[in-house]
Amino acid sequence: EAQVTQNPRYLITVTGKKLTVTCSQNMNHEYMSWYRQDPGLGLRQIYYSMNVEVTDKGDVPEGYKVSRKEKRNFPLILESPSPNQTSLYFCASSPRGDYGYTFGSGTRLTVV
Amino acid sequence: QKEVEQNSGPLSVPEGAIASLNCTYSDRGSQSFFWYRQYSGKSPELIMSIYSNGDKEDGRFTAQLNKASQYVSLLIRDSQPSDSATYLCAVIISGSARQLTFGSGTQLTVLP
What we know:
The complex is a heterodimer.
Chain A: E1 4-7, E2 10-13, E3 19-25, E4 31-38, E5 42-51, E6 54-57, E7 65-66, E8 76-78, E9 87-94, E10 102-103, E11 107-111
Chain B: E1 4-6, E2 11-14, E3 19-25, E4 32-38, E5 45-50, E6 54-58, E7 61-66, E8 71-76, E9 85-92, E10 100-102, E11 106-111
Parallel strand pairs in B: 2-11
Antiparallel strand pairs in B: 1-3, 3-8, 4-5, 4-9, 6-7, 7-8, 9-10, 9-11
């Protein structure tokens, strides 16, 4: 089944403890992206990648890192999480830059 | 000015009616437009994409694009209670290396 897989689905962590949210797609898509969704603010792009080793900042990149060492994987790294990074995170992928994205199931992160 | 704006709603329509959802965008050079549906607690699901002026129909859904007016809409005919969800308009902003930008969404409720 063609899909974008994120893990974990739920995560509660403490301020300052480094964490990684994994994202993998099995559709051989070139483009991948991370979004966060907050009430009243909608979906905002954190980072995106146009191919292996090619990444760029979205609208809200502060406090996040990404890497694209393989085409299928695009992990999101929070080096020192803070409570304002409590949010619902989505990974998404697209075969081309002007096609729609397929979204993963989401990761609900709580930082206390 | 927000790059992608939607009527925040909520919008309620009776079962069997036509639901009309509207979206405007600020960048005149944008070329790719999408409508996503998001059920509560779920990930966004792509339901329509449109690239050229005019109408595009897919089952009960019709997307309409008017680039001169910088306006894109989604019509849902014969609305069903299962259509109750938040509908997100998304645009690829030109000059942004394929960055997909979302509106804040319109919550639709179809009343039985």
